[in-house]
From TrEMBL:
Superkingdom: Bacteria
Family per similarity comment: Belongs to the FMN-dependent alpha-hydroxy acid dehydrogenase family.
Protein's recorded name: 4-hydroxymandelate oxidase
Pfam families: FMN_dh (PF01070)
Cofactor(s) the record lists: FMN
Residues covered by the FMN hydroxy acid dehydrogenase domain: 1-357
Keyword Lipid metabolism belongs to the record: no
Naturally occurring in which organism (per UniProt): Streptomyces demainii
Entry EC no(s): 1.1.3.46
Stored CDD domains: alpha_hydroxyacid_oxid_FMN
UniProtKB keywords: Flavoprotein, FMN, Oxidoreductase
InterPro entries (UniProt xref): Aldolase_TIM (IPR013785), Alpha-hydoxy_acid_DH_FMN (IPR012133), FMN-dep_DH (IPR000262), FMN_HAD (IPR037396), FMN_hydac_DH_AS (IPR008259)
PANTHER family membership: 2-HYDROXYACID OXIDASE 1 (PTHR10578:SF107), S -2-HYDROXY-ACID OXIDASE-RELATED (PTHR10578)
Amino acid sequence: MLMTVQDFEAAARTRLDPVHADFIAGGAADEITVRANEEAFRRLRLLPRVLRGSTARTPEITLLGSRARTPVLLSPTAFHKLVCSEGELATARAAAAAGAIMIVSMASTVAVEAIARAARDAGADGDPAPLWFQLYLQPDLEFTEALVRRATAAGCAALVVTVDSPVRGAHERDLRNGFLDLPDGLRCEHMADPRQDGRVRPIAMSPEISWEHLDWLRGITSLPILLKGVLHPEDARLAVRHGADGLVLSNHGGRQLDTVPATIELLPEMYAAVGGRVPIVLDGGVRRGTDVVKALALGASAVGIGRPVMWALAEGGEKGVRRLLELLREEFDQALALCGARGVTDLGPDLVRAPAWGPAPPFPGAEAVRPDGAVS
Ligand SMILES: Cc1cc2nc3c(=O)[nH]c(=O)nc-3n(C[C@H](O)[C@H](O)[C@H](O)COP(=O)(O)O)c2cc1C
Ligand SMILES: CC(C)CC(=O)C(=O)O
């Protein structure tokens, strides 16, 4: 039975080509950060309130003008057709049904126009949350601008600019497996260049991208811009100064620079750096409803999930992703209730305890008791 996010991974692995499973699960180099993301959530403890009459609970959020029925977003992930023949269409339908914001990857295997249509159709009698679009700024600004116009025309409500990839991370599993290219028949639809008869360009990960490019982007679009992959508090301040409307606190699921801290560990510092001026979405290692509560309590406005979506899509296509989102909604709701909270705004840092590094401090008063039990 699929009861947990972990169950989806196990089920997906029985269906997937192990090379593709490695592409999803893997990270950079020694995968220290991949593991750190999940471990850091496990180390944090929740300290619930009681007797608060939290019967009517709502998981709803409004983020940069986008209304959603859950604080769990679908982080951008590439190549959905690698694991499901319908690809991003299936993901978008499931997200629309759940009222979850889906961030469409620039490296999607279905074009944003078709994804948007699928989301609208699936959400017809519900209330689909809008799509956002993820972008790697290309040094060819004319091409980048055309893509921004496409995403905007398709109805995307925000742009998520990934800034942690001046070069690609060392995906050693992929290198060992010889997984260097998409299989025949699949392509990154957004990289087809109309100026070159639809020839598909490689996605440029470019070290030349700088704050000036962000200023340029700010000048050509009125959509909210979020920067994904800012980890240093000084960069968070710079981002705000350069007009970013939000941050996605992300280490790319441990797929770029290995040994960077877990995102949840950085959250308090990043929250303090932006001082509430812009919202922070956190991704990396979110696997349980309690993880969602911990992130929101420490200052995130929402969380994103990457690998769980790929596992669910591989396991059961649209239905799989629907079930995954439902599962996280149920777990989140239960965790809210058990914390004595009615919604996102009831969550604060007082509900989270981080274990002390090293020996625990003595209980108040305990210092007066000597090891032999005698009281001094
Ligand atoms: C298979 C895969 C593909 C990804 N593709 C993209 C992408 O195209 N653009 C991007 O900004 N991040 C990409 N990411 C990173 C995710 O957006 C996200 O930051 C990360 O997966 C979150 O960690 P989690 O997998 O532990 O939930 C990808 C991650 C995975 C696992
Ligand atoms: C196509 C890639 C750039 C997708 C990516 O960001 C990743 O695999 O982490």
